[in-house]
Amino acid sequence: MKLCRFTHNNQTRIGKVVGDDVVDLSPIQGVGTSMRQLLTVLPTLREALEAAQEPRFALTDVKLEAPITDPQKFLAIGMNYQAHAEEAAAKGIPIPISQLWFNKQVSCITGPTDDVVLPGVSNAVDYEAELGVVIGTRCRNVPEADALSVVAGYLVCNDVSARDWQMRSPTFTLGKSFDTHGPLGPWITTTDEVPNPHGLMMHLTVNGEERQRTTTGGMIYNIRQQISYLSQVMTLEPGDVLSTGTPSGVGMSTGNFLKDGDVVRVEVDGLGAIVNRMVAEK
User: Fold this and answer.
1) By the number of CB atoms within 10 A of the CB, which of 10, 39, 187, 198 ranks highest?
2) What's 146-205 look like in SS3?
3) β-bridge mates for residue 157, sequence order
4) What angle do CA 58, 40, 202 make, to 5 degrees?
5) pLDDT digit string, tens, across residues 199-239
6) pTM > 0.85: yes or no
7) Backbone angles phi, psi at 244, to 5 degrees
8) CATH C-level class of 74-280
9) Beta strands 125-126 and 161-162: pairing type?
10) Rg (CA), the chain
11) Is 221 helix (H, G, I), strand (E, B) or coil?
């Protein structure tokens, strides 16, 4: 399934995308209005969700929202593709010797077609195409071999980064957490539709010009290793979002940062695309 949040007639509901339509799942008892809460009962409701066919709306008649807005954690791994680690090192960021994780505050989350604000206090806002993982099962100390079993699904992320603020903070968090700097979507594709999350092509364009392209198989630390590592430290909860790293080609490597009016499109094959316009802060 492709689980989404959508707005129609000023009401935001949970649905699923089927072809060019959205099926409204809100009439099903237990669905509610929170994707995070739905994920906690997804195994119980799956049969009913999959069977639902009505009511439905054309995708062109609704607005897709961020598929999850209230995760308890939004974590991202730094420099998880070798070529990107090398281009970051050239700009003074040391290549890590283990998994390097940082927070993106959940207040940065925005929708798959929403504007991304270029803050007036930064002149170095950058893009990062990433595959997002959404946790589906509360877990701790997960063995690598079992790690994919705790995943609910996958989505597309743009880890928008204010590089000047990132470089001021050893934890990266401030430079990664400006409001609107976490566009997610366009929906959560459940794991049954993604047999190999390490075999997906990911690409990013700015105003139609390709800047990033790679396969998710190029991760230094794969998703199993990421979940196992994190879960040694903290309990992962349904709805938690893990952003799994970006490939080379970011603007930091050339000094070509995002400008007012730029349109950034990130696509992961099979998972859809998010398209966000950059707008200067007013």
Assistant:
1) 187
2) HHHHHEEEEEEEECCEEHHHHHHCCCCHHHHCCCCCEEEEEEEEEHHHCCCCCCCEEEEE
3) 130, 184
4) 55
5) 999 999 999 999 999 999 999 999 999 999 999 999 999 99
6) yes
7) -95, 10
8) alpha beta
9) antiparallel
10) 18
11) coil
